[in-house]
Amino acid sequence: MSDNIIIPDDDNEMLEQAQNEVRARFNAANDKCGDIIEAYITGGYVQNLAKMLIYVGTDRAKAILSKMSEPDKERLESAYKSLSDKKVTDPDVISSVGRELKEAGFYGKAAANAVTEGLNYEQERAVSGMLPQLFEINPLLTMNIEAQIYSFDMILDMSDRDIQKLLREIDSLECAKALKGGSADVQNKIFRNMSVRAAAILKEDIEYMGPVRKSDILEAQHHIVEIIKRFISSGEIVLKREEVE
Prior knowledge:
By secondary structure, this protein is mostly helical.
Protein backbone atom coordinates (compact mmCIF):
# COMPACT_ATOMS: atom_id res chain seq x y z
CA MET A 1 0.00 0.00 0.00
CA SER A 2 1.31 3.45 -0.90
CA ASP A 3 2.08 5.85 1.94
CA ASN A 4 1.45 8.89 -0.29
CA ILE A 5 -1.44 11.10 0.82
CA ILE A 6 -3.80 11.90 -2.02
CA ILE A 7 -5.53 15.28 -1.71
CA PRO A 8 -9.01 15.22 -3.25
CA ASP A 9 -9.34 17.23 -6.47
CA ASP A 10 -12.17 19.24 -4.91
CA ASP A 11 -9.87 20.43 -2.11
CA ASN A 12 -7.16 21.39 -4.59
CA GLU A 13 -9.68 23.30 -6.68
CA MET A 14 -11.06 25.16 -3.65
CA LEU A 15 -7.58 26.14 -2.51
CA GLU A 16 -6.62 27.29 -6.00
CA GLN A 17 -9.77 29.41 -6.26
CA ALA A 18 -9.06 30.91 -2.83
CA GLN A 19 -5.46 31.70 -3.79
CA ASN A 20 -6.60 33.36 -7.03
CA GLU A 21 -9.09 35.53 -5.13
CA VAL A 22 -6.46 36.53 -2.56
CA ARG A 23 -3.91 37.24 -5.31
CA ALA A 24 -6.39 39.46 -7.18
CA ARG A 25 -7.23 41.41 -4.02
CA PHE A 26 -3.57 41.80 -3.08
CA ASN A 27 -2.58 42.96 -6.57
CA ALA A 28 -5.34 45.58 -6.53
CA ALA A 29 -4.24 46.86 -3.10
CA ASN A 30 -0.59 46.81 -4.15
CA ASP A 31 -1.40 48.79 -7.31
CA LYS A 32 -3.17 51.38 -5.16
CA CYS A 33 -0.06 51.67 -2.95
CA GLY A 34 1.99 52.19 -6.11
CA ASP A 35 -0.37 54.92 -7.28
CA ILE A 36 0.07 56.72 -3.94
CA ILE A 37 3.86 56.57 -4.20
CA GLU A 38 3.77 57.76 -7.81
CA ALA A 39 1.52 60.68 -6.91
CA TYR A 40 3.85 61.61 -4.06
CA ILE A 41 7.01 61.44 -6.17
CA THR A 42 5.51 63.46 -9.03
CA GLY A 43 3.98 66.11 -6.82
CA GLY A 44 3.97 65.93 -3.06
CA TYR A 45 7.70 65.77 -2.56
CA VAL A 46 8.14 69.32 -3.85
CA GLN A 47 6.67 70.78 -0.65
CA ASN A 48 9.12 68.78 1.46
CA LEU A 49 12.13 69.85 -0.59
CA ALA A 50 10.98 73.45 -0.23
CA LYS A 51 10.84 73.03 3.55
CA MET A 52 14.42 71.74 3.53
CA LEU A 53 15.60 74.72 1.48
CA ILE A 54 14.44 77.06 4.24
CA TYR A 55 17.19 75.70 6.49
CA VAL A 56 20.08 76.50 4.15
CA GLY A 57 19.33 80.21 3.88
CA THR A 58 18.24 82.38 0.98
CA ASP A 59 21.57 82.65 -0.86
CA ARG A 60 22.33 78.93 -0.74
CA ALA A 61 18.74 78.07 -1.63
CA LYS A 62 19.10 80.15 -4.80
CA ALA A 63 22.38 78.38 -5.61
CA ILE A 64 20.75 74.96 -5.18
CA LEU A 65 17.81 75.96 -7.36
CA SER A 66 20.14 77.16 -10.11
CA LYS A 67 21.61 73.62 -10.40
CA MET A 68 18.23 72.00 -11.04
CA SER A 69 16.57 71.33 -14.38
CA GLU A 70 14.24 74.12 -15.47
CA PRO A 71 10.90 72.29 -14.94
CA ASP A 72 11.93 71.08 -11.45
CA LYS A 73 13.40 74.47 -10.63
CA GLU A 74 10.14 76.26 -11.46
CA ARG A 75 8.01 73.93 -9.34
CA LEU A 76 10.39 73.98 -6.39
CA GLU A 77 10.97 77.74 -6.59
CA SER A 78 7.23 78.37 -6.49
CA ALA A 79 6.79 76.11 -3.44
CA TYR A 80 9.82 77.69 -1.74
CA LYS A 81 8.48 81.21 -2.14
CA SER A 82 5.18 80.21 -0.59
CA LEU A 83 6.93 78.74 2.47
CA SER A 84 9.99 80.95 2.95
CA ASP A 85 8.22 83.35 5.29
CA LYS A 86 6.92 80.55 7.53
CA LYS A 87 8.55 78.84 10.47
CA VAL A 88 9.01 75.13 9.77
CA THR A 89 10.28 72.99 12.65
CA ASP A 90 12.76 70.15 12.28
CA PRO A 91 10.24 67.45 13.29
CA ASP A 92 7.87 68.81 10.67
CA VAL A 93 10.48 68.39 7.95
CA ILE A 94 11.49 64.93 9.14
CA SER A 95 7.96 63.59 9.45
CA SER A 96 6.41 65.28 6.44
CA VAL A 97 6.96 62.36 4.08
CA GLY A 98 5.38 59.86 6.43
CA ARG A 99 2.49 62.18 7.22
CA GLU A 100 1.63 62.83 3.58
CA LEU A 101 1.77 59.13 2.69
CA LYS A 102 -0.36 58.27 5.70
CA GLU A 103 -2.97 60.86 4.76
CA ALA A 104 -3.01 59.41 1.25
CA GLY A 105 -3.84 55.98 2.69
CA PHE A 106 -0.46 54.29 2.24
CA TYR A 107 -0.11 53.23 5.86
CA GLY A 108 -2.56 51.73 8.32
CA LYS A 109 -5.46 49.37 7.85
CA ALA A 110 -7.13 50.71 4.71
CA ALA A 111 -5.05 48.83 2.14
CA ALA A 112 -4.98 45.63 4.19
CA ASN A 113 -8.75 45.80 4.70
CA ALA A 114 -9.21 45.61 0.94
CA VAL A 115 -7.46 42.24 1.01
CA THR A 116 -8.78 40.69 4.23
CA GLU A 117 -12.34 41.98 4.56
CA GLY A 118 -14.99 39.30 4.03
CA LEU A 119 -12.60 36.41 3.42
CA ASN A 120 -14.08 32.95 3.92
CA TYR A 121 -12.20 30.18 5.69
CA GLU A 122 -10.50 28.82 2.55
CA GLN A 123 -9.41 32.28 1.44
CA GLU A 124 -8.06 33.12 4.88
CA ARG A 125 -6.12 29.87 4.92
CA ALA A 126 -4.75 30.75 1.49
CA VAL A 127 -3.57 34.16 2.74
CA SER A 128 -1.68 32.52 5.61
CA GLY A 129 0.16 30.24 3.22
CA MET A 130 0.92 33.05 0.76
CA LEU A 131 2.36 35.54 3.27
CA PRO A 132 6.06 34.85 2.44
CA GLN A 133 5.59 35.44 -1.30
CA LEU A 134 3.35 38.47 -0.71
CA PHE A 135 6.03 39.90 1.60
CA GLU A 136 8.52 39.81 -1.27
CA ILE A 137 6.16 42.00 -3.33
CA ASN A 138 5.09 44.56 -0.70
CA PRO A 139 6.45 44.09 2.85
CA LEU A 140 4.46 46.90 4.48
CA LEU A 141 1.13 45.81 2.99
CA THR A 142 1.81 42.18 3.91
CA MET A 143 2.69 43.04 7.51
CA ASN A 144 -0.59 44.93 7.85
CA ILE A 145 -2.45 41.95 6.38
CA GLU A 146 -0.76 39.56 8.80
CA ALA A 147 -1.56 41.86 11.73
CA GLN A 148 -5.24 41.74 10.82
CA ILE A 149 -5.39 37.98 10.34
CA TYR A 150 -3.41 37.24 13.49
CA SER A 151 -4.74 39.79 15.97
CA PHE A 152 -5.26 39.51 19.72
CA ASP A 153 -9.02 39.38 19.09
CA MET A 154 -8.69 35.98 17.42
CA ILE A 155 -8.97 34.61 20.95
CA LEU A 156 -12.71 35.02 20.35
CA ASP A 157 -12.48 32.38 17.60
CA MET A 158 -10.79 29.81 19.84
CA SER A 159 -12.62 26.98 21.54
CA ASP A 160 -12.73 26.82 25.33
CA ARG A 161 -10.40 23.83 25.27
CA ASP A 162 -7.85 25.70 23.14
CA ILE A 163 -8.00 28.77 25.38
CA GLN A 164 -7.27 26.57 28.38
CA LYS A 165 -4.31 25.17 26.46
CA LEU A 166 -3.13 28.72 25.75
CA LEU A 167 -3.43 29.77 29.39
CA ARG A 168 -1.03 27.01 30.38
CA GLU A 169 1.60 28.65 28.15
CA ILE A 170 1.49 32.20 29.52
CA ASP A 171 2.16 33.60 32.98
CA SER A 172 -0.41 35.58 34.92
CA LEU A 173 1.46 38.93 34.72
CA GLU A 174 1.75 38.77 30.95
CA CYS A 175 -1.90 37.76 30.68
CA ALA A 176 -2.94 40.69 32.88
CA LYS A 177 -0.93 43.17 30.79
CA ALA A 178 -2.39 41.85 27.54
CA LEU A 179 -5.96 41.92 28.84
CA LYS A 180 -5.44 45.44 30.20
CA GLY A 181 -5.72 46.60 26.60
CA GLY A 182 -8.09 43.90 25.40
CA SER A 183 -11.79 44.20 24.67
CA ALA A 184 -14.41 43.23 27.23
CA ASP A 185 -15.38 40.25 25.05
CA VAL A 186 -11.81 38.91 25.04
CA GLN A 187 -11.48 39.45 28.79
CA ASN A 188 -14.74 37.63 29.51
CA LYS A 189 -13.79 34.69 27.30
CA ILE A 190 -10.52 34.30 29.18
CA PHE A 191 -12.23 34.60 32.58
CA ARG A 192 -14.80 31.95 31.63
CA ASN A 193 -12.03 29.45 31.01
CA MET A 194 -10.40 29.87 34.40
CA SER A 195 -11.40 28.68 37.82
CA VAL A 196 -13.47 31.16 39.83
CA ARG A 197 -10.52 31.83 42.12
CA ALA A 198 -7.97 32.25 39.30
CA ALA A 199 -10.32 34.57 37.40
CA ALA A 200 -10.86 36.69 40.52
CA ILE A 201 -7.11 37.01 41.06
CA LEU A 202 -6.53 37.97 37.41
CA LYS A 203 -9.28 40.60 37.57
CA GLU A 204 -7.65 42.09 40.68
CA ASP A 205 -4.25 42.09 38.97
CA ILE A 206 -5.72 44.02 36.03
CA GLU A 207 -7.59 46.45 38.25
CA TYR A 208 -4.74 47.23 40.63
CA MET A 209 -1.96 47.14 38.04
CA GLY A 210 -2.37 50.85 37.45
CA PRO A 211 -1.41 52.61 34.22
CA VAL A 212 0.52 50.42 31.77
CA ARG A 213 2.46 51.72 28.80
CA LYS A 214 0.81 50.92 25.50
CA SER A 215 4.07 49.43 24.25
CA ASP A 216 4.08 46.95 27.16
CA ILE A 217 0.47 45.97 26.44
CA LEU A 218 1.21 45.45 22.75
CA GLU A 219 4.33 43.44 23.56
CA ALA A 220 2.35 41.11 25.85
CA GLN A 221 -0.40 40.73 23.25
CA HIS A 222 2.15 40.08 20.51
CA HIS A 223 3.79 37.30 22.52
CA ILE A 224 0.42 35.63 23.09
CA VAL A 225 -0.46 35.95 19.40
CA GLU A 226 2.86 34.30 18.50
CA ILE A 227 1.96 31.34 20.74
CA ILE A 228 -1.44 31.05 19.06
CA LYS A 229 0.20 31.18 15.61
CA ARG A 230 2.54 28.37 16.66
CA PHE A 231 -0.43 26.26 17.75
CA ILE A 232 -2.23 26.95 14.47
CA SER A 233 0.86 26.15 12.39
CA SER A 234 1.38 22.83 14.19
CA GLY A 235 -2.30 21.94 13.85
CA GLU A 236 -2.78 21.81 17.61
CA ILE A 237 -5.67 24.26 17.41
CA VAL A 238 -8.08 25.34 14.68
CA LEU A 239 -9.82 28.70 14.75
CA LYS A 240 -13.58 28.51 14.30
CA ARG A 241 -14.12 31.69 12.33
CA GLU A 242 -17.55 32.49 11.00
CA GLU A 243 -17.49 31.96 7.26
CA VAL A 244 -18.64 34.79 5.00
CA GLU A 245 -20.65 33.78 1.96
